[in-house]
Amino acid sequence: SGSEDPELAALEQSRFAPSAEAARLPETHAEEHPLGFAIAQLLGIYILAQAENSLLLIDMHAAAERVNYEKMKAQRSASGSLKTQLLLIPVAFEATHNELAALADHAAELAQYGLDLADLGNGQIAVRAVPQMLGKADVAALARDVLRELAAVGSSQTIETKENQILGTMACHGSIRAGRQLTLPEMNALLRDMENTPRSNQCNHGRPTWVKLTLADLDALFLRGQ
Q1: Is the dihedral of CA 198, 199, 203, 208 positive or negative?
Q2: pTM given for the model
């Protein structure tokens, strides 16, 4: 009819409104990129993506956390330590007795996890370097959480028994925070990282990082074909 909204008509014709990036993809893109391509960010928490005949919702913090965890774990396995990034200006914080003791006891282990910390001698600890892939994290909070993990290692335990927990704690600090606005290229970069990351369908706490709604699922929601 003449009153029909042209945008709604276009949506009905295509079933999904594809992103410009998706529209330029070759026919084989569905197999190459099963998580599809980003359309939008929802509520500062989720990425909405379109794949072949399906719609995906991705928890961006949980997904980035898993990607970081697996990257750090692989780097540790390959070289024994994480690559570091020197801070142009060291970050100092007021340390507790337990944090100072953990630094004194575990300086070598901290270096293996890409952290260079120094006891300034006045009740403060300075962070001089952090893992390269976590350069944008809150470095003081990252250092304190890792020190707390190391302080919890009992005399009968080795650091190796806590490695997964320590890496998980670090990965959380390197993840995209809820509320951060991402561009489409940033969202798509995360989707490609997820596709290349083992076990990326679950976060480090066992929760799903994404859910998929197929075209059939969506049709059922709207009672199409009934």
Answers
A1: positive
A2: 0.80
